[in-house]
Write a structure and sequence with these properties.
Strand order of the largest sheet: 1-2
Radius of gyration: 17 Å
Shape: globular
Number of helices: 10
Distance between the termini: 41 Å
């Protein structure tokens, strides 16, 4: 998917995807970001639109790529539209991700929310800390987080098969 975005789309779309899968931010919150919000910053404070809560986003792991992108982005918006001084729309973000997914031969539909779910899934797979993930995603309860990342009762039962103290 990264290769497809770099090759067939733009640096803007690649950075959008990179931030999405590495932070779990909603696309609407990412599109509100301005260059000044991330310029020379490894940690960014974002007010989430849906929950109205502030969240610190750590960009350390993707900092060099973001800063390189800022060198070629002359807009005040991090994800500028070609149609005037504004960010791209969520619809345009969706179109670009869908196009990249098709170019990468990804059979499942790719959408803007796929980035957030991908982040949640892989965060859980690496850390197994569903409580921290719940806080990161600002979910109201743990059941929402489990459903969100697709943890089923069967998976929980399978994980206990070889568990012995």
């Amino acid at each position: 998917m990264k290769w497809s975005l770099k090759r067939h789309c733009s640096d803007r779309d690649y950075i959008l995807f990179l931030i999405g899968i590495n932070t779990g931010l909603r696309v609407g919150d990412m599109l509100k970001l301005k260059v000044k919000d991330v310029m020379k910053k490894k940690v960014v404070k974002v007010k989430e639109g849906k929950t109205n809560k502030f969240r610190e986003i750590n960009l350390t792991n993707i900092y060099p790529e973001i800063q390189s992108y800022l060198d070629v982005n002359s807009s005040e918006w991090l994800f500028p539209s070609r149609k005037g001084d504004k960010p791209i729309s969520t619809t345009q973000a969706y179109r670009q991700l869908k196009k990249a997914g098709e170019m990468a031969d990804i059979p499942e539909g790719i959408g803007t929310h796929t980035m957030r779910k991908t982040f949640g899934y892989w965060y859980y797979k690496r850390t197994h800390d569903i409580f921290i993930l719940q806080a990161i995603l600002n979910h109201s309860n743990i059941a929402v987080t489990k459903k969100y990342i697709g943890i089923t009762q069967e998976e929980m039962n399978d994980s206990l098969i070889d568990f012995v103290l």
